[in-house]
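By way of example, what follows is a protein record of this kind.
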Amino acid sequence: MCGIFCFISKTDFTGAQEEILSHCQCHLQNRGPDETSRLEFDSRVLLLGTVLWQQGATPCRQPVEDDRFALLFNGDLFMDRDGPPEDSDTRWLFRQIVATRGEAEELRELFGVLKGPFSLVLLDKVRRRVYFGRDCFGRNSLLVAVSNDGIVVSSVLGNKVQQKTVELPPNGIYYMDLAEDNLDLHIYPWNTKKE
């Protein structure tokens, strides 16, 4: 179990992200006491990950990032995969994401074949897009809260968070384009057709 937190600001940071994070920090720490790390992007996106080390030879600090992507992942993948057996699911998934080069259809296909309970947040720094979602059965929590300042996506929120909060429906992978003025919510729905 890990804690994932993302604040997407409608404009440049105003301080609201730190206030909301302060209300959630201890709850996030309870979900992942072994590692904590944060990333700020473009004065608009704050990512924070707390890790409970259960997989891999060493703890995998989150967000996992390179020049293009930053990933927060909470889950377990039950599928055959390539790579070192001592690798965590997070590291494996990050390599697969990097291999897509940010192509929307390839990302959609990748997320669609994941098997197991998960929730995730992915920042594409080049396309300036934030993806988030959870598996089609909704087995891992992912909450969304909307305020005048921005949007919070988190595995847990404290009871002092005043924004209206909903559990993200497990209907697909959602995304927000930071280039859009209104931060409209878009979705790549899960393919529910039986083959």
